[in-house]
Amino acid sequence: MQDVYIIGVGILRFGKHKNETVRSMAEKVIINALEDAGIDKKDLQAGYFSNSFWGLFDGQHSIRGQVVFRGMGIDKIPVVNVENACAGASSALHLAYTAVRAGMVDVAIAVGSEKLTSSDKAKSLQSYSACMDVTNIEGTLNGLMGYGRNLTIELPPEDENAQRSVFMDIYGMMARWHMNKYGTTQRHLAVVASKNHFHASLNPYAQYQNVMSVEEVMNDVPVIYPLTRAMCAPVGDGAAAAIVCSENFLKKHGKGRAVRIRASVLVQGSDRDYDGEDIGERVGKLAYNAAGVGPEDIDTAELHDATAYGELHQCECMGFCPPGEGGPYAESGATKLGGDRPINTSGGLEGRGHPIGASGLAQIHELVTQLRGEAGPRQVEGARIALAQNGGGSIGIEEAAMCIHVLERV
User: Which CATH superfamily is domain 4-119+235-409 in?
Assistant: First the structure.
């Protein structure tokens, strides 16, 4: 087994790209990553392509990665198409890492590209249900409703006509459960979102680049209590890529701005009960053990925050704070630039955006940029070890898939 390094990254600003396609966005970030790595497309020995909905919206199934790579003159190499819902891009990187670490190839590229915007907004929102067991959506939702039983907190009336994806309902239920059990408040969630919008304002690749105060977040359009629009990831398009290589390849080409992958762990969820070990806790322990580090060693992290509650919850799962203290931890300022452990310096999914098949690699782009010391006004001073946590889909009462990477500055 040999060490694996990220030598090139590429990203397209996330947003609503009417004139772009899944293919055109992927081509751009592949070119960006190759230029960043200082290598030619002929050097690539394997490709892993993440996308969830190209087939649903445009009918392109089965050979999505091959269509992209062959169109760029990248042929003959093995190409694997990856679907793991919101964790697809990080799963693609995990496969690239695995191939290089096993010595099967010396250089591989992971690409994620997704186009979610559509003239049919309802279709875009409904597409998210494909990230669940479609034969048992009602059963899954009924199981998740357990989070809403025996609540003592007072809930405001809901807008029955509000348009939202099914995952906002899931996050809303889990947030209310956390509020009821630990005393977390809507303001705690607003602090998380306000912080992420501030970080996004410093990121030229973010979909939203507007600063929002805590009060503005709380007073934004309600989605489902306690979540407001500013606490939720927007629908959008985008792409990102990362090139990984072996230590032997790196020695021949010089270390340059390489970043070492200390751990890459991919798991699926389990049929646990509400008090069982969360998938985030379980995979976090595996990642820390593989990397030989602990939560206290992480200088900065990108956590999967499809809503502000997602970040709050994962701060606890990753061991950055005790269970139930994610809200006070955020309010302390620890997760903001200048704090003890800045989190989602990219703006996270709430600010940077969340084109499903690309989000995991966007996290990697941000952390590589941080570890290289090239993040400009959002730079985390002295960042040496970073963590990316990326969850996807839902089965039972937790994510269907989750991937964690631990990266280290060389």
Answer: Thiolase/Chalcone synthase (3.40.47.10)
